[in-house]
Amino acid sequence: MSPLADGAWLDCPGAGGLSLIEGTQTLRNVCRDFPEWHRGRSPYVFWALDVDISAVRVQVKRASEHLSGLLLNSYCRQPHVTLDLCGFPSSAPNDDDEFNHALIDRQCSALRAAQVPAFDMFVGGLGSFSSAPFLQVTDRAGGIAAVRDCLAVDGRHRLLGRHVPHVTVGLYADAWPVTNIAARFEQYVAGEPVHCRIERISLMSYVPSLIGGELSSVADFYLATGEMCWHRSLT
Prior knowledge:
Blueprint: E1 9-12, E2 19-20, H1 35-38, E3 44-50, H2 54-66, E4 80-89, E5 98-99, H3 101-114, E6 119-129, E7 133-138, H4 143-151, E8 166-168, H5 178-186, E9 194-198, E10 200-206, E11 216-222, E12 228-230
């Protein structure tokens, strides 16, 4: 689902300034079904910021084209910023990666109690986890952290590892030498960061048998009113 715990990442905020943190190769992604993970369960549900707007799509497309030949062709997810995971919906959760409506109810109650205001963030600049390049997200107001605090039921996030807000560009198709990736990154000229006004957070889902497949909108929680607007059932 997310490369946040992969460790190695590159940072390229503009045409220069490339900083290699660690690692010598990217992680190879495989375009196949993983039944040993989903065990026939579907969909997989998570919280995110929906940034599927024209200006962000342009940035994602430009970055993807710049990294042509390095990425899986199958990635087609709409631009979004993952906040936290829910898992597979179940009426009687038995595993750590399953949940029911009670989790969503508690998270929404925490959001209403916190009264997190709408906030501004910016998307732009190219970076990379070991498994995936991404567009960087700048949130000076701390809105993302405030929302994530509310999603952490009993103080525990389901999305493990260091949280780096980002918009995924694609998935690496092979274990490419980092030196090759660095050379491509250094040639990238970042455009102006895209301003995004965040007034809602979204519950999204995807079919787990499709690697990098399209996302579906399940519900939206509006920060100003505390209203949860459902577009479809969890299952």
